[in-house]
Amino acid sequence: MDGFLFPHFPAPKSLAQFALFRKVENAAQLRKRIIGAAALAGAKGEEERDAVNFAFIDAKLITSRLHLQTAIHQAILAFTQDSLRTKYVHSEILFYLNPTNNITEALRRYGISDTSTDMIVVRVGDASLPPSNAQELMKDVVIGTIVPFSELEQVTDWGAVKKYHKLNSEAAVRDLKGEEERIAIDRIVTSTVAMKSVMQ
Amino acid sequence: MATSIGSSSGPPSHLSPSLVLLQSPTCKPISQGAEARVFKTYLSPPLPTAAAGFNAASPPQVSPILLKHRFKKAYRHEILDTALTKARVAGEARALLKCLRSGVNVPSILMVDAQEGMLGLEWIDGHSVRQLLPGGEEEEDDDPVTADSGEDPLTPYCIDADTITQLIGAQLAKLHKADIVHGDLTTSNMMVRRGRAGTEVVLIDFGLSFTSTLVEDKAVDLYVLERAFASTHPDSEPMFAKVLESYGKGLGQKEWGVVNKRLDEVRLRGRKRSMVG
To answer: Which key words are in the record (chain B) (predicted)?
Structure first.
């Protein structure tokens, strides 16, 4: 279990807890469950929505801890200013990760797919809640292993990141190789997330 | 009952989060101009790991960020003020991203709150070119590079003034190749830091930048820098010549010929093309 603390946000939204899950077995069912929960009415619907009230992010498109932190920070900032473009702060994280303004595309690319095996699960909540609680709730819905976040470097699919951000012909990346290239990509991708609210 | 890790009350709710950020005890003012104030602070402090059951295996390094706050200007109408501030924050962020994508060394963007006029950038750990080249030292400096020891300020960076001017020229060439005009090139708006691949020059402060394909704008950009060199660093001609030499190499013979010719014209008439206004 890992987390970002943002003391400048109102207490109910000042802590983002997250975990990197690997060897996830139930991505397809999970996706169905999230979509189903949105359609359920009544008290049962509330309960079901609460159970899957996380951001489920496809880990292979995340380049670094700072990349994730920036997306979460900008999403909560939008929430506190009543300028959410999607319905919830968790979906807003996915929206911020995607370089275009197309919400469906954001959910499809950065959300989990039926074949996902590595995912980052995020819950934005109150800093006074014990983190062990969130971890139990995540484990209730995701069948997989929580690993240290540093394992992300084995997960990131740099080719896909380059494709979605249209970096293949950019001067900054063209002549670089290996570690240097990955650092340059990470800086561009993180900055793209940060400035999304003022994108053309 | 597990330990709570945040204050239950939280920050005052009437203030926007970006302004609360400025009131944090770790937030230190760096400098102030007519347009904005600049601070050094932390976006997300480290978690009190073990206490709250967080994984303490590899505590990530927390690095500072630079906050540029375009504060409210009371002399402007409020609606106009918000619109202008928003547009300027957006403009600066877009220019920075364009630079990043074009391979120009600039700080990466870490937060944007256009509503409040806040721009959060990567903290560049180093010194300005102004501080490192001869003659530029006597700014109001709380962090003098040479502590009266007479030691060469360039020693920690393992390079000489020649290399700095070369690096500057190379960055400017990349900038202009991407059709970005900085608008306020001075030796204070360039930082020198030790990067992963050796010492690098990083361009900062894109508050006056704009996109242009015009030779005129690029030549004026260089002219402004030439004047800045001349007024801050004694005997700057050979230094600036080195900048231009490396700029020309980076830009390519053909384009450099055109820009150089225009630069000569600008030198004769000053940076304003027309004398109107």
So the answer is: ATP-binding, Kinase, Nucleotide-binding, Serine/threonine-protein kinase, Transferase, tRNA processing
